[in-house]
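Chain A, query sequence.
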Amino acid sequence: MRRWLWILFVAACGGSGDGSSTTPPTDGGADASHPLCVDGRSVDGAYPKANYELAILGTPPDVSFQSAEGTISLHDYFEPCATQSRLLVVRVGASWCGTCRWHLKHTADVKNLDVGKRLEWLDLVVANRDNDPPTLDDLAPYRALIDAPEKLAIDPGFQLGPVDPVRSPLPLFVLIDTRTMTVRNYLHDPD
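Chain A, predicted structure.
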């Protein structure tokens, strides 16, 4: 198992590690006082009002992606009333990318870790095998590369790319806290 990935997920799920967590505590109950909670449940379509920023500790804008089942938006993952923080793992890749293919084939390894139950996965395809903008027809072959698929969509505009200011090689992992929708960390082209 790639140790870096496990350490990254544990660090992202457990706060900043220096005692100054930017996310709500994960040992308490739901934040029923949150303005986007009604009767202990999140308001459908709600999303934090913030100065949106694609950066660590920033809140990304509520971007949307096309999937075979319809539109997937970041607000679909927002859980301000959750009793425990979860981590949205947005994995951005392309069919032609060898490192991307390796990660897709080893998704179950991460899901089987103790922290795996607190992870939500969204795979985004930014290019097809010919490095052309992806279409919905490219999703089925891409899904076949994933050993434990969850949500999958196309992102021809590479909307989350700016979270990595140097635009490094794929794959790009963007880790978002679902209670606050803040970017906890990102990682690109891991070895």
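Residues 2 and 191 are 8 Å apart (CA to CA). Residues 15-30 have pLDDT under 50 and may be disordered.
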